[in-house]
Amino acid sequence: MPTRVHLPTAVAPLALERLHSLVENRTVYNLAGFELNVFETHRTAHRVPLRLEGLALTTMLRGKKVMHLPGREAFDYLPGESVVVDKDELMEIDFPEACLCQPTQCLAVAIAPDTIRHTVDLLNERYPKAEPHQPWAIEGPEYAHLTNTPELTDTLGRLVAVSRTSDINKDVLAGFTLQELLVRLMQTQARQLIFHDYARHLTTHRFAAVVGYIKDHLAENLTIDKLSALACMSKATFFRVFKREFGITPVEYIIRERLGEAKRLLRHPLASVAEVCLRAGFNNLSYFQALFKKYEGVTPGAYKKQMVA
């Protein structure tokens, strides 16, 4: 299967080993440093309370929930999304569509505080972020509800797989994967912070200015020389720290932004593929078509037909 921007952003649904109840049936895997929970619900329910020990990364696998968390407006929780829940935070959950034929399923990784602290301290000591005043950390409530990145999803899938094996080395393997999961989580939050909310950070984060410039000049020739100068870094440092902080290279980010713009433009009934190619910043039609199909799974023309049909 080709690599795509819209890779399934939820871990594949799991088959539960036991079914004890129709509401929040729970299967647990206990490993060193964390607890992996799989919850499955087979009937509609409202305001079901749940607490988890330790900070938890929850991810929707299938179905729909409505989440009620302290101090926040209720929100829909769908496959392809994750929510970070603080230690002992009370979740109250609605299951408006759950049934035996269409169960709701959610994954929750509850992580020991020492595991988080060790990973965060290691990153801040050896691999600092671009801005010293914004060190590595799991962000609070404002950035707790996330759209999964392919990288976060892949790591979650591997953590589930190793947790369910009988390998005698599973705790060691899971420990490495859990550290990667924490890094991917913080990178995902950093993308939300800077890629989607860059305007708030233009004066405090050098990469916010870079992201703003990219978004404003997508159709132009964007060079690493120009972007690294905006960040006041050498090219090598800029490339390395950008990837460390966000989990993708500057070039990959530009490609994703241009493809996103191309998808937006293709929805216009009168826009031709060739016109969209140029307006989105691609100067070669064949390259644009090949790249679009690689990431989206269909050609630009086929995507356009789907959108305007």
UniProtKB/TrEMBL annotation:
It holds the Pfam family AraC_N. Keywords: DNA-binding, Transcription, Transcription regulation. This is AraC family transcriptional regulator. The keyword NADP does not apply. PANTHER family: ARAC SUBFAMILY (PTHR46796:SF6), HTH-TYPE TRANSCRIPTIONAL ACTIVATOR RHAS-RELATED (PTHR46796). The keyword Translocase does not apply. SUPFAM superfamilies: Homeodomain-like (SSF46689). Residues 208-306 form the HTH araC/xylS-type domain. It comes from Hymenobacter segetis.
